[in-house]
Write a structure and sequence with these properties.
The structure holds 2 protein chains of 2 kinds. Chain A is mainly α. Chain A has a domain of 230 residues. Chain A is built from 16 helices and 6 strands. Chain A has a two-stranded antiparallel ribbon with strand order 1-6. In chain A, strands 2-3 form a two-stranded antiparallel sheet. A two-stranded antiparallel ribbon of chain A has the order 4-5. Chain A is globular. Chain B is mostly helical. A two-stranded antiparallel ribbon of chain B has the order 1-2. The chains are: A mainly alpha, B mainly alpha. At the A-B interface, helix 5, helix 6, helix 10, helix 12 and helix 15 of A face helix 4, helix 10 and helix 12 of B.
């Protein structure tokens, strides 16, 4: 079968995680170059890349519930917040007015996923009863209820405008907070978080891909395309909608627990509506219902601040005369991109990539 | 009893402000099946234009007010023409997200302009009576709240008349019933869309003024008040104007009562509900009502075919 990569002799091969040799090669090249580059990039860019990895894990989570199962969730940021707070309480250092149990990461990392998943299960009955816009509006209400709880539950979150410190990085009793000496080599805390995130990213990616190849993924797609028809062919709507919400929240929670480790602090005001909308934008701009899409979107969004900063550094004196802050420029570009992609390229970056790939694959023919 | 009356009056007045935004939501939803999250931002746009003209440029307040109403309406119609017209036929959710994008866009520009210090509206209402208020039987009635109430009632009566009697009102009703059929009957559906957004923009600008006028001032968080019309619309049902009004009154009254009775309640029961609970209450009510009636109190149930 050499030289005929698109000829599949059985179904197993076609449904493989990487179903062509090219994909395998590029995935490996990407992974190796990412690991090697982690030793050369500056702190700032490492921070952005790690964020990109974690944000794509969270975006995959949203993609499960909104892209695959077709249930609108405007409250994804809330689950990220719950994950961040669970990890902070279990792994953080307590004080007289803030709770913290200084537990091992092996305990708080799974729990940071499980607790949001349980909360996700709790809102699942709503998802079964409502559909479309009304579901979106209820999840919007959830954002406001959650930010109210986050700002008022002071022993857990530190309260509005104050915030708290995140979990300590302690694995098997070894504390990584000040880095670690391995012989003569010194591993920084953030570098360690990068590798941790990379591992999580790979696991999460494999998880999403496998989910989509399985019975559950096909059931989600059926519910997305027509829920009544799906029910008619014997799909238990309640069970699958609930599991979609739970899985999505699990991804969000785990990503959230690591996402705020690098900056070291987390404040209730971070989990507002805009934060949740950012993730919707990431999924839409990347390409909803695809696996590579949220990854594209997350990388694009997480690296954008760095790119804008880099770009503005060329206009040293000019930058100060700008009427807008870099964060505002970021937000403007963000909203314009969101609008632009929805109008002109609903399939997102993935759609652009798909067309490019097919163009070169068929070259010099146009079909 | 006085406290109860005071809370009721303030609640109804708040409900009137919300209903102005809420009717805009419903009009747009009925005409286009679009839920415009940009509506709260339009309210702030209206307030911003008033403040810019009346305070910064020194235009007489009432002229600035009228200009702001029309300008907001036109901007709203323009947004529809540029951003929403190409989205016709797209999934409802995509369009809703697009309007969130518009909302962020408008608010980023507005926040930059407003800055950190609150802005005055330059309205003369605060100088009427005693600090813009009058006491009637122990209840303090602010002229601004009275104005909101009168505006809302006038707007509802006018719109009701407009839909019943005028040619465009009839065309609007036809469009909301079936876009293609009304197109086939010679109705310019595009113009109807523009008109609907124009009206919604004007209503939003009115609401914007009543939210920020007087001693309330225009800040970066003013839009949150306008956003509370959203649970109101959901409670009433997305496609029902009476529903929008009832929903707004429910939300307004709840907020009024919570604001006045939360502290005594906490004192008696020993529970603490936390600061800002009155802002949360609308969403809790929305939750409960949606679980019981998924289409809202007055919304029409959607008939689905496979």
């Amino acid at each position: 079968m050499k030289g005929r990569p698109k000829l599949y002799t059985d179904y197993q091969k076609e449904m493989a995680i990487f179903n062509t040799a090219t994909q395998k090669v590029w995935a490996l090249v990407g992974l190796v170059s990412l690991i090697i580059s982690s030793f050369f990039f500056s702190q700032y860019w490492m921070y952005l890349i790690t964020t990109a990895l974690l944000v794509s894990v969270a975006a995959w989570g949203l993609n499960i519930v909104s892209g695959f199962a077709g249930q609108i969730s405007l409250a994804h940021g809330v689950f990220i917040g719950i994950g961040a707070y669970v990890s902070s309480v279990l792994g953080g250092v307590g004080s007289s007015y803030i709770r913290g149990y200084e537990l091992d990461m092996l305990i708080w990392l799974p729990l940071a996923g499980i607790v949001p998943a349980l909360v996700g299960l709790m809102i699942a009955p709503l998802a079964v009863r409502l559909k479309g816009l009304n579901l979106g509006l209820v999840t919007l209400g959830l954002v406001y209820i959650a930010s109210f709880i986050f700002s008022n539950w002071k022993s857990v979150t530190g309260g509005a405008g104050v915030g708290r410190k995140t979990a300590q990085l302690k694995i098997f009793g070894i504390n990584f907070n000040d880095g670690l000496h391995l012989g003569s080599y010194h591993i920084e805390k953030n570098q360690f978080i990068f590798f941790l995130s990379l591992l999580l990213f790979l696991l999460a990616g494999a998880g999403v891909k496998n989910l989509m190849r399985s019975k559950i993924g096909r059931a989600y797609a059926a519910i997305r395309d027509r829920d009544i028809a799906a029910e008619a062919i014997g799909i238990n709507l309640y069970r699958f909608k609930a599991s979609a919400f739970a899985l999505s929240s699990f991804y969000a929670g785990v990503a959230g627990s690591l996402l705020f480790l690098m900056s070291g602090g987390v404040a209730p005001s971070q989990f507002g509506l805009v934060y949740s909308v950012t993730f919707i934008a990431i999924v839409i701009i990347g390409g909803a219902g695809t696996i590579l899409g949220p990854l594209f979107g997350a990388v694009f969004f997480s690296l954008m601040p760095g790119a804008i900063k880099y770009f503005l550094s060329f206009f040293e004196g000019f930058g100060e005369q700008l009427p807008l802050h870099p964060t505002q420029i970021e937000r403007l570009i963000f909203s314009l991109l969101l609008i632009g992609f929805l109008i002109f390229e609903p399939r997102g970056l993935w759609g652009i990539w798909f067309r490019l790939r097919n163009y070169f694959k068929a070259w010099p023919f146009s079909y | 009893m006085t406290i109860f009356l005071q809370a009721s009056f303030e609640g109804i007045a708040l409900g009137a402000v919300y209903s102005l935004v809420a009717i805009g939501f419903v009009l747009i939803y009925k005409a286009m099946d679009v839920l415009s999250f940009a509506q709260p931002a339009m309210a702030v746009v209206g307030a911003g234009i008033i403040s810019a003209l009346a305070v910064d440029k020194g235009v007489p307040f009432w002229i600035a007010f009228v200009i702001a109403l029309i300008a907001t309406g036109l901007l709203s119609a323009l947004l529809e023409r540029v951003f929403l017209r190409p989205m016709i036929g797209q999934p409802v959710f995509s369009v809703a997200i697009l309007t969130i994008g518009l909302d962020i866009l408008l608010r980023t520009v507005l926040d930059d302009w407003i800055g950190l210090a609150p802005r005055f509206m330059g309205d003369p209402i605060v100088s009427w009576g005693e600090m813009g208020a009058k006491e009637v039987g122990g209840v303090i009635i602010k002229f601004q709240q009275m104005g909101a109430l009168i505006t809302a009632i006038t707007a509802v009566l006018f719109l009701g008349y407009f839909f019943k009697v005028s040619k465009y009102g009839l065309a609007m009703r036809a469009t909301s019933f079936d876009q293609e059929a009304s197109l086939a009957q010679g109705i310019n559906v595009g113009r109807i869309f523009s008109l609907v957004w124009f009206i919604a923009g004007i209503l939003a600008a009115f609401a914007g003024f009543f939210i920020t006028g007087g001693f309330n001032l225009l800040t970066q968080t003013s839009f949150i008040s306008a956003l509370r019309a959203l649970p109101a619309v959901v409670i009433g049902g997305l496609d029902s104007i009476p529903g929008a009004i009832v929903g707004s009154l429910i939300i307004g009254l709840t907020q009024g009562y919570v604001a006045y009775y939360q502290f005594p309640f906490e004192k008696i029961t020993g529970l603490t509900l936390g600061s800002g609970f009155s802002l949360l209450a609308p969403y809790l009510i929305m939750f409960v009502i949606l679980i019981i009636k998924p289409n809202g109190l007055f919304g029409t149930e959607e008939v689905e075919r496979v």
